[in-house]
Structure formats: structure tokens, C-alpha cells
Amino acid sequence: MKNTKRMISTIYESLHAKDLDELEDVYKNWASDYDNDVINLAGYVGHLITSDLLLKYLNNAEAKVLDAGCGTGLVGEVLFKNNFHNIEGVDFSQEMLDIAKQKQIYKSLKLVDLTKKLDYEDDFFDAVICAGTFTCGHVGPEALYEMVRITKEGGLICFTVRKQEWEASPYIRIINDIEKTDSWIKLEHNTCDYNVKEGVSCQLCLYQVN
Ligand SMILES: C[S@@+](CC[C@H](N)C(=O)[O-])C[C@H]1O[C@@H](n2cnc3c(N)ncnc32)[C@H](O)[C@@H]1O
């Protein structure tokens, strides 16, 4: 990113919700430096904690996994190294997807807006993983309804929510709402480090779809 002196957290916190053009521009200009900046400058571990948690419960390497908001493919890299090769990545930034494609780890990659109805049948994926995408000005908790719809019975949904977003948006209400309708059950929910070098934490959640 051009102004790497700005802390990455400050950049996220200044993003205005619903300003998709601004967000698209951020990732368009950032894609080629993203991996280095988030890992080395911010100490981002969102991709590692979500992958580790999902892999603790997902035993079948043939499982069809959706990496929602895959970006440059940091999650896909971890899953691929662990012999999970049936991974579809979706993101709304073509430039981020282009970097992910170069890594040759995804079965397919698609340009998708996660705030809209998703073009997948019901009960399609064995697991959905979403790291770093429930964050300031990105995707809100309403997207969880679609993730539940496209996940098979017994399938897993693993995601992070950045601390500020967890507090600012109705995550608790929507998560409880899904639970009340018996659409999923909680397997794990923890507060975790997220951008370690910037002192930012997140909620790390794993649910099983009924
Ligand atoms: C912080 S990055 C996380 C990327 C990756 N999952 C990781 O762990 O490095 C957030 C990603 O969400 C994507 N994104 C933001 N809003 C989106 C939307 N409405 N639909 C799909 N992807 C979106 C961005 O393009 C970006 O690639």
C-alpha cells in the first residue's frame, strides 16, 4: 500500500461502511503488497486462526470449502498445505483474486459480492471459511444467513469478526437469531489476537449447520 507508514488498523477504521467504491480502490491499489503488509507490518493472524480451527473439526480432505472473501489466498494457502484442495475462493476485488490465482491453490475463483444473495444452491458446501472479511466497512453480519443457506447439514462455518465491528454491528443478535431457529449450533467462540503487532483482537467463531 502506498502509505505504509499509516497503521493498517487506522486504514480499516477510516473505511466508511457501504462505500464500496472506496473499498474496491483500497484493495485495487493494495493487492500486490497486501500479504507483506498485513503479515509483516500488522502481524495479521486471521488466516491462521480460522484455518487451524476449521482443520480441527474438518477431517475429510475432499470437503468442498468456500473461502468467502478469499483476498490474495492466505487462507487457501494454509488449507492447501494441509491437503485440502477442493476450495472455491470468492471476493469482490478482481485484483486480489488475480494474486490468489497466481498461487494455484484454488479449484476456482469468482468475483462475488458477499452482501448479495449468493449464486449457489442450498446445502452446497461442506464448510465456509471467512477470515478478515467481517471487518470495518466490508461485509456485515447479514451475510451469515446466506452462508448458512449454502452450507450442508452438518457442515461448518468458521469466521473472524474484528473487535470494532463486533461491537458496532448486530453480530450477537444475528448469531443468536440463527441459533434460535435451530439453523446452527455453536462449536467454539473465542476472543483471539488478530493484528498482533497493532494490538487488535477479534472474535473467532465456529458453528455447525443443522
Ligand atoms: C482483510 S481482507 C481478508 C482477505 C483474506 N481472507 C485474508 O485472510 O487475508 C478482506 C477481503 O474482503 C473482500 N471484500 C470486502 N467486501 C467484500 C464483499 N462485499 N464481497 C466479497 N468480498 C469482499 C476484500 O476485497 C478483501 O479481499
What does the model show?
- Helix 5 (74-81) links the parallel strand 1 and strand 2 (87-91).
- The chain has helices at 8-13, 20-30, 34-42, 46-57, 74-81, 94-102, 143-150, 163-168, 171-180; strands spanning 65-68, 87-91, 108-111, 125-134, 151-162, 184-195, 200-209.
- 38% of the residues lie in helices and 27% in strands.
- The relative contact order is 0.17.
- The termini are far apart.
- Strands 3-2-1-4-5-7-6 form a seven-stranded mixed sheet.
- By secondary structure, it is α/β, with parallel strands linked by helices.
- The longest helix has 12 residues, at 46-57.
- The radius of gyration is 16 Å and the shape is globular.
- The protein has one domain: 3-Layer(aba) Sandwich (Rossmann fold).
- Helix 4 runs parallel beside helix 5.
- The mean pLDDT is 93.
- S-adenosylmethionine binds at residues 23, 27, 46-47, 69-71, 74-75, 91-93, 96, 112-115, 131-133, 135, 138-139.
CATH architecture type: 3-Layer(aba) Sandwich
Which fold name corresponds to the CATH topology? Rossmann fold
Poorly predicted sequence stretches spanning 5 or more consecutive residues: none
How do the strands line up in the largest sheet? 3-2-1-4-5-7-6
How large, in whole angstroms, is the Cα Rg? 16 Å
Structural shape: globular
Structural class assignment: alpha/beta
Quick recap of the structure?
By secondary structure, the chain is of the alpha/beta class.
